[in-house]
Amino acid sequence: MTPRLQWKSPDGREQVFMISSQEVLIGRTSVADIVVPDRHVSRQHAKVVAVPDGWQLVDLNSTYGTFVNNERVDRRILRHGDTIVLGRDVEFRYFTEPPAGPHDADTTRIMQESLKDLGRLLPSEASDLEKILCVLDFQYQWSQVFTPDAGLHQILESTLRISGAERAFVMVRKGEGFGYAAGLDGHGRKLSETHFRASGSIVREVSARGKPIFMVEGLSEDFEKQQSIVAMNLRAIACLPLRGIPTGGESPEILGILYLDSTKAMHSLSGLDQKILTKLADEAGKVLERVEMLKTIEQQKSLERDLALAEETQRNLLPREIPRLERLKLHAYSRPTRYVGGDFYHFQVMDSGELIGVLADVSGKGIAASLLSSMLLGCLQLLLTGGSSTVQALQRLNAFLHAKAPGRFVTMFLFSIGPDGAGEFVSAGHNPCFVYRASRKEIEELPSNSLIIGAFDFATFQADPLHLDRGDVLLVYSDGLTEAEDPSGAMFGFERVRQILLDEAPSGAEKVHQALLFSLQEFTRGRAQTDDITMIIAEQA
To answer: Mean pLDDT across the stretch 298-305?
Structure first.
């Protein structure tokens, strides 16, 4: 069973979020997986991460704290039924078991609330009681095995039984207006969109004023001469707004319109009938709210499938094993962000024994960036294997990218090292990389010496000499390393990277690798990663 978080906001509204990725960020920021628009919730407040023991809730140094079962926590393995509070009053429930069945306490609560709402309306006549039971039956039906089509059908069926109308339609928002979603006639037959005709003037008035219109025993003078009404020979119309809280919204809005009409008078709708129809419209608004939520869930699932494919594509770009060379020790690391980006690294050993190393950062994120990375790497491999020099390969790669993917670009650091330690590098718009010089115990900076790839068709590329003597350590990295942030928003920065390299390089490339990762973890203190972090470390032995 996929675990889920059920959010009960201060106004009592409930939303369900499925935990289907390895890390779920919760906070006020718009890039969070679960966006909570509450001023007592930090921008990146907490995250739920997969761990061997299950799912762990991690507080991200939030201002007002994270609580599990009334206890403030920094980290806590979640258990079924836990109550989570973020800040002052944003409450979640964590569940790992299936939702309760159709005859459990939740269903009882739904029906009890409806009875309470309508209790003051209860008449002694059986016919009126049957009308109220329509509402309760509707609530019961849609709260069980819910599908959008079944929910809309139940709305129409219930309103037709109460009103005696010949036709009923549900309209949902489409652009600036409302359009067909479902239709039913008084005999229970579905009405397709080709049968859909409604009084536009009445729909517009209900939408603008937010109040229902009931004309069941003849039309008012304001509407009886409307062209659409005359054309359809209508004698009775009822039109009600369907309100609900849209996904990501904070207050109710008109999500749809319930429209009923007839060429003869409808049932004589008493004040009670109108209240029951209005109550039913309230319940119908909840159906549309749920339909919107399902659409959002499906969109999230689709996005997650795309991201999973992108992650797999990106993972396949990375070498399955790092070359083992006699005079050169190599270490490499790549950790993609939650949103898969376009970082990749690659090693290619030429017949001459020369090593070519590449670290690239493709613009954009997601499946498009990963596919572009895959294409670029394939092209680069073919060019290098075909005998092109590094400069020639980048020149052709630039022309290809500029022609085939306008507006996309890539920064790249490409280096070559021969068995004697001599080589060259091209830095195409890449951030500065560093070499630790063992003989002088100093850091040498390797700045960008060429334009980014793909941005300009006139770009040229330049290779500068690079030589590694014994004990020298080359550090190549993407900007995700220096731009990693702590909870206050401060960046890891170039100077911190330089200092770690200076301190640890005398102990070797592996020590530099470990120290960078440890320092990064200590610095970010659990703050969610926002960009890929990739690095190559090469030590001349």
So the answer is: 67
